[in-house]
Amino acid sequence: MSNGAKILSEMNDRSREVFRRVVEGYLASGDPVGSRTLTRSMSERLSAATIRNVMQDLELLGLLDSPHISAGRIPTQQGLRMFVDGLLEVGTVAAEDRQLIDTASASNESDITSLLDHIGGTLSGITRGATVVLAPKAEAPIRHIEFVSLAADRALVVLVFANGHVENRVFTPPPGQTPSSMREAANFLNALAEGKTLSELRRSISQDIANRRQEIDSLARALVESGIALWDGTDEHAERLIVRGRSNLIENSAEAQDIDRIRILFDDLERKRDIADFLELAETGEGVRIFIGSENKLFSLSGSSLVVSPYMNADRKIIGAVGVIGPTRLNYGRIVPIVDYTAQLVGRLLSERSSG
């Protein structure tokens, strides 16, 4: 049982209802929800003071937050996650939304990329969010990769395959990426890419990451054994080498070089992980997944959420994904079924095209 599910199961009905109504009110309006508002909507008659006490308890649990001096509360990221996982009531796709999606998918675009672009544009209009449609992954060898920054939170990857086919995919880059770091990532990948498919390229980089980690581990071991440093390697994504004392106490220049080398390797490892992340955007499990705020660094601008659903071919193999990016106060109950419906439709469409 996840931590969120455990907290939810231990809440009494009153706390659960206050929590649910605060989140629903916030998702609907974007404003903090106050105790007076809740006195009018609760199923049992409660005073504003009683509701305030419950809200304070929920705040101590890390589920609600007071954004400023106002008495209102908003859900935290942990609170939103718990709501989405345990209390979200998903609706069905409205008839008018379904008709718009069906019409877009029935367009007679001969090129799959143009068709997906058309569907993505329709989805964007319906949900009022930015959409991500990851096209089926071509497994032809790659000739060239280019990353183009479109905005702080949007980038385009252009894949030119050896057979002349070109794929454009819009994605949300990892936070902190700049146009120049994207150019570096592209240069690095292009040096390796010639003749490799995307999955072979991904394997090659994974091997590179494993080699870097081995090199860091062996260098660090020598420094730790000599008492110069402490190794805090509990979480492989947050390993740290803590150098004891001041660096000027390190008399042996070889040891100083080792520490510099480890620092360079760490930077290199981080960059390679980012590049591996770039390549794994469409690698996601079956079903609709919701990434909230900074939960997942690929889709994480603070204050944004991504609702994404993979789509499959006739062999039930995941070949791409459809998603909507919007504020964390997305209308999840409406958007989740829309994304799910669109993904299933795209999967069916592409299966029919490939067999036709």
TrEMBL record:
GO biological process: negative regulation of DNA-templated transcription
Tree of life domain: Bacteria
Cross-referenced InterPro entries: GAF-like_dom_sf, HrcA, HrcA_C, WH-like_DNA-bd_sf, WH_DNA-bd_sf, WHTH_transcript_rep_HrcA_IDD
Keyword flag Transcription regulation: yes
Pfam families for this protein: HrcA
Keywords, ordered alphabetically: Repressor, Stress response, Transcription, Transcription regulation
Residue ranges of every copy of the Heat-inducible transcription repressor HrcA C-terminal domain listed in the record: 115-336
One MF term in the entry's GO annotations: DNA binding
Function: Negative regulator of class I heat shock genes (grpE-dnaK-dnaJ and groELS operons). Prevents heat-shock induction of these operons.
Similarity annotation: Belongs to the HrcA family.
Protein name (record): Heat-inducible transcription repressor HrcA
Native organism: Cypionkella aquatica
Lineage of the organism: Bacteria, Pseudomonadati, Pseudomonadota, Alphaproteobacteria, Rhodobacterales
GN (gene name): hrcA
